[in-house]
């Protein structure tokens, strides 16, 4: 550990004259680098490795120095003569070291001789295909090797938004189409003999079927994460160190080393609980894509026969691991674990098992935390928010065809001419009308009380075919001051889907931090644990606290804080762990009790974090509370029942329902 801290200190303080190299020091090139050798002047050494590292620093570097830290980790490793790391830096307004120039694109080589600046280019967006292509061409021509890996470092946004968000150019990012264009301009695509050994994403959310399909004729292996990565990212000293010790390893062995090193690094800093990283054999992606297409085609055919299937499929998706948040507070990535989605539909769709078999064949290895136990290595698109514009972005670039028509029909109730031709090939010639909440008249639906004082909502058997989910919102009501506070959402209900009857399971308790009630949103409902998002101000900045409830241990835990998905689709890579002395302010949402005004954020209690700070349930303080049943369909429509009210006093709960 002392060596690691020393290396990081060196990389943060070094100038162009001195660079750490293993245990020694070397001189670097001058700031005006001379010409590099071209491809014809170099011979590829058998057994050699080159890693082309596309290091787009973004705000991760300017604000936190995370790229410099990973450079420091790399430079702990003493490389053999047959291993080179070629690095392009850019994309950040400031670098937290003394050698990278934020005003240029710079190209470095880290080798057995240390770190050397070998080329500079004018500033350009690292989110542009041409910038990536120029770097890949430069690296290929001047630093070829027997085995080559390309590694992206930055934020990621999943299949729709891509990766490499450039802070200098409005967070412009590389889409999958742009990545494909860049790689194919440098290497001839070949599924039988791909040019690269490995493509890796030290970014968030890029282990998707769409990414795997994009690179299936470019590389042998893919290493990426389904979930948002923490800021510590890949552990470069360990996985590059493993390659340095054994350059004979292939991409599969290197990929496993990357995964293991990553998880070890997360354990060191305490960010391992909801991490994922997987190694995919891209030569086996063809059978997976065939199974995925058949899965989508069968789902579409069933929906064309009975549109109520959209609701059943949506309820299954709600119970699947999903990544990047997918709540109103955090924003939506609309990425769900493909294998978990298939498992939830094995009893409904005969093709689901083929998806699981194909995943088992191509996902060779994965690591994950205790709150990511359902991950199978690759995610796929599912429209959790019903956003037609987001879906349109996915439809332009996602892999496969059937699920695009499935979602188009689900979200809009219709298909274009190509979609109608597609279902015609399945001997289907019409689209039944989809029942949805806009036509059911369930807004303001009345509630009843049973003999034990439990409220329930009766919708009838049609609910099974209309609702993609149901939960409740909880409010604190202060009629004397004409104030209503929204405390959040949960799914603690008993549902009889066959008859369409839903009972609240309210126990008079709610989530809290050090005894202070919080607003909380359910982000994942699982069999073994639930995950919640809690909006807070952390030292004055907006964050979402990530909280888990474990059904087996009946314990709550705080996993850390993130800043959510921004307008560009970029996921926050930094998982901020609470530290002693942090100022944490809880956020509720307030409106008048008598009016129709919108709920606005309201800062409540401010807590100074201590070593004993914890999340838990507390009995609601005395007062009046209101619960509304919240219903949603697969199109993204919402409806709300009438309210049930609770008067809490001395631990007793008196329940009443609104009556006309």
Automatic annotation (TrEMBL):
<keyword id="KW-0732">Signal</keyword>
<dbReference type="InterPro" id="IPR005077">
    <property type="entry name" value="Peptidase_C11"/>
</dbReference>
<protein>
    <recommendedName>
        <fullName>Clostripain</fullName>
    </recommendedName>
</protein>
<feature type="signal peptide">
    <location>
        <begin position="1"/>
        <end position="20"/>
    </location>
</feature>
<dbReference type="Pfam" id="PF03415">
    <property type="entry name" value="Peptidase_C11"/>
</dbReference>
């Amino acid at each position: 550990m002392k060596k690691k801290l020393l290396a990081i200190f060196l990389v943060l303080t070094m100038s162009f004259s001195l660079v750490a190299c293993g245990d020694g020091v070397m001189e670097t090139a001058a700031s005006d680098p001379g010409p590099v050798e071209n491809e014809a002047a170099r011979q590829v050494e058998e057994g050699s490795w080159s890693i082309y590292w596309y290091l787009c620093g973004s705000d991760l570097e300017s604000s936190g120095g995370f790229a410099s830290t990973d450079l420091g980790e790399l430079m702990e490793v003493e490389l053999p003569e047959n291993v080179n790391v070629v690095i392009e830096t850019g994309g950040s307004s400031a670098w937290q070291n003394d050698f990278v120039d934020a005003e240029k694109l710079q190209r470095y080589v880290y080798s057995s001789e240390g770190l050397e600046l070998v080329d500079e280019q004018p500033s350009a967006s690292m989110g542009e295909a041409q910038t990536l292509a120029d770097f890949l061409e430069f690296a290929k021509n001047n630093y070829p090797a027997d085995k080559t890996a390309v590694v992206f470092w930055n934020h990621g946004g999943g299949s729709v938004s891509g990766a490499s968000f450039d802070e200098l150019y409005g967070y412009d990012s590389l889409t999958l189409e742009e990545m494909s264009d860049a790689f194919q301009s440098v290497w001839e695509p070949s599924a039988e003999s791909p040019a690269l050994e490995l493509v890796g994403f030290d970014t968030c959310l890029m282990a998707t079927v769409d990414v795997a399909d994009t690179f299936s004729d470019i590389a042998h292996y893919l290493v990426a994460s389904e979930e948002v990565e923490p800021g510590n990212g890949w552990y470069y000293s360990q996985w590059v160190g493993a390659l340095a010790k054994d350059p004979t390893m292939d991409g599969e062995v290197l990929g496993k080393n990357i995964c293991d090193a990553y998880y070890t690094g997360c354990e060191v800093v305490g960010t391992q609980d909801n991490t994922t990283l997987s190694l995919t054999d891209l030569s086996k992606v063809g059978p997976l894509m065939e199974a995925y297409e058949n899965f989508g085609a069968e789902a579409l055919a069933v929906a064309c026969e009975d549109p109520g299937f959209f609701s059943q499929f949506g309820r299954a998706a709600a119970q699947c691991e999903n990544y990047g948040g997918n709540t109103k507070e955090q924003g939506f990535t609309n990425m769900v674990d493909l294998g978990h989605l298939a498992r939830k539909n094995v009893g409904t769709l005969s093709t689901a098992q083929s998806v699981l078999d194909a995943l088992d064949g191509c996902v060779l290895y994965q690591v994950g935390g205790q709150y990511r136990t359902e991950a199978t290595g690759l995610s796929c698109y599912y429209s959790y928010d019903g956003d037609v514009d987001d879906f349109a972005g996915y439809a332009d670039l996602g892999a496969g065809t059937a699920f695009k028509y499935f979602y188009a029909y689900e979200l809009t109730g219709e298909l274009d001419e190509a979609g109608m031709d597609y279902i015609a090939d399945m001997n289907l010639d019409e689209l039944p009308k989809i029942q949805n909440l806009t036509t059911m008249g369930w807004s303001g639906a009345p509630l009843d009380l049973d003999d034990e004082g439990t409220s329930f909502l009766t919708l009838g058997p049609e609910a099974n075919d209309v609702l993609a989910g149901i939960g409740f919102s909880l409010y604190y009501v202060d009629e004397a001051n004409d104030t209503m506070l929204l405390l959040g959402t949960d799914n603690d209900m008993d549902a009889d889907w066959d008859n369409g009857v839903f009972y609240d399971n309210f126990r008079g308790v709610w989530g809290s931090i050090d005894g202070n009630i919080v607003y909380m949103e359910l982000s994942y409902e699982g069999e073994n644990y639930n995950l919640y998002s809690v909006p807070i101000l952390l030292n004055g900045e907006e964050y979402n606290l990530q909280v888990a409830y474990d059904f087996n241990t009946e314990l709550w835990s705080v996993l850390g804080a993130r800043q959510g998905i921004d307008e560009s689709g970029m996921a926050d890579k930094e998982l901020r762990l609470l530290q002693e002395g942090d100022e944490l302010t809880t956020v509720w949402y307030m409106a008048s009790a008598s009016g129709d005004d919108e709920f606005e954020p309201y800062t409540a209690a401010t807590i100074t974090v201590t070593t004993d700070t914890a999340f838990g349930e507390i009995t609601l303080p005395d007062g009046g509370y209101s619960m509304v049943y919240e219903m949603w369909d697969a199109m993204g429509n919402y409806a709300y029942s009438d309210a049930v009210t609770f008067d809490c006093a001395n631990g007793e709960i008196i329940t009443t329902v609104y009556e006309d």
